[in-house]
Specification:
Layout: E1 8-9, E2 26-27, E3 30-34, E4 56-62, E5 65-70, E6 84-88, H1 97-115, E7 126-128, E8 135-137, E9 143-144, E10 149-158, E11 161-167, E12 178-181, H2 188-200, E13 205-215, E14 220-228, E15 242-249, H3 262-271
Parallel strand pairs: 10-14
Antiparallel strand pairs: 1-4, 2-3, 3-6, 4-5, 7-8, 8-9, 10-11, 10-12, 11-15, 13-14
The chain binds zinc ion.
């Protein structure tokens, strides 16, 4: 269910892995998982043969136990053992719910380290702090902290109907909810109203904040809302972003396809008759 505490605490922790510590391994948009069938698990430290010179790097704790990734500054390829494979990050359906959320938060941190290897001010190399979750430029001293982008997502309803949109950049025919990043100077509610107007040309009523949830897959913190709108008002699609929009009846709405996503939880709440 939506708006959960994932149990992942990314606070800095000087720790060494145990044999059974979780080890999150990534490359580009893929993660290394265990399991030959459809059900996967996250590997443990003992499952992975780290290349020579690649040290484990602590990403924080899950339910009080330290978790790791291979040194995010290393480009060495992690070798696969039998029963292991590189999977698309959207594999989360193959992982139990909390594990999928842990995977996304680990990805959020790992990809931030990868993108921040060089200082954005002077181009020098950065180095992890020895006492907090930050990076410091070795040349000019600039500090960097994990980047989190706030974003809003809104379930827009009109009686028994829910508004869905299909984006121009996502999988063709895949429908989701109106969502977008919060812009500098905006409040969350303003962002919700702006996104609805920009994407589909709708004026929202009864905008209600529901809660928030980390969404490390895209480095965001998602703020979830419900709002109502007039189903008979004309939809004006933002051509650059929205390929299609539809009002779908409660009875015809398929369940969400990614249980860890905020979108899926909002659909569950609509289907349960909450709005
Ligand atoms: Zn610098």
């Amino acid at each position: 269910m939506l708006l959960m505490d994932t149990g992942f605490s990314p606070a800095y922790l000087p720790a060494e892995p145990r044999q059974d510590s979780l080890l999150f391994c990534f490359r580009q948009n893929e993660c290394l998982l265990m399991g030959d069938g459809e059900e996967k698990t996250i590997p443990r430290f003992a499952d992975i043969a780290l290349p020579a010179g690649v040290k484990p790097f602590c990403l924080g704790q899950v339910d009080g136990r330290p978790v790791f990734c291979p040194d995010p500054f290393s480009d060495a390829e992690i070798p696969l053992a039998p029963g292991q494979s590189w999977c698309k990050l959207r594999i989360s359906k193959a992982l139990p719910l909390p594990e999928a959320a842990w995977l996304y938060t680990a990805w959020h941190l790992w990809s931030w380290y990868r993108r921040t290897r060089h200082c954005g001010v002077c181009g020098g190399l950065t180095r992890p702090s020895a006492h907090e979750r930050s990076l410091r430029c070795e040349t000019c001293g600039q500090m960097f902290y994990p980047a989190i982008s706030p974003a809003v997502i809104v379930a827009i309803t009109s009686g028994d109907y829910l508004l869905q949109v299909s984006t121009t950049y996502g999988e063709p025919g895949r429908f989701s909810l109106v969502a977008g990043y919060v812009e500098p100077g905006e409040t969350l509610e303003h962002a919700v109203r702006r996104e609805a107007m920009e994407e589909v040309g709708l004026t929202l009523r009864n905008v209600e904040y529901l809660g928030d949830q980390p969404w490390g897959f895209s480095g965001t913190l998602m703020f979830a809302f419900h709002a109502t709108a007039d189903k008979d008002a004309p939809l004006k699609l933002q051509e650059s972003e929205i390929a299609a929009a539809r009002w779908i009846h409660r009875r015809e709405l398929p369940p969400g396809d990614n249980p860890v996503s905020v979108s899926c939880s909002l659909i569950e709440r609509f289907l349960s008759g909450e709005w």
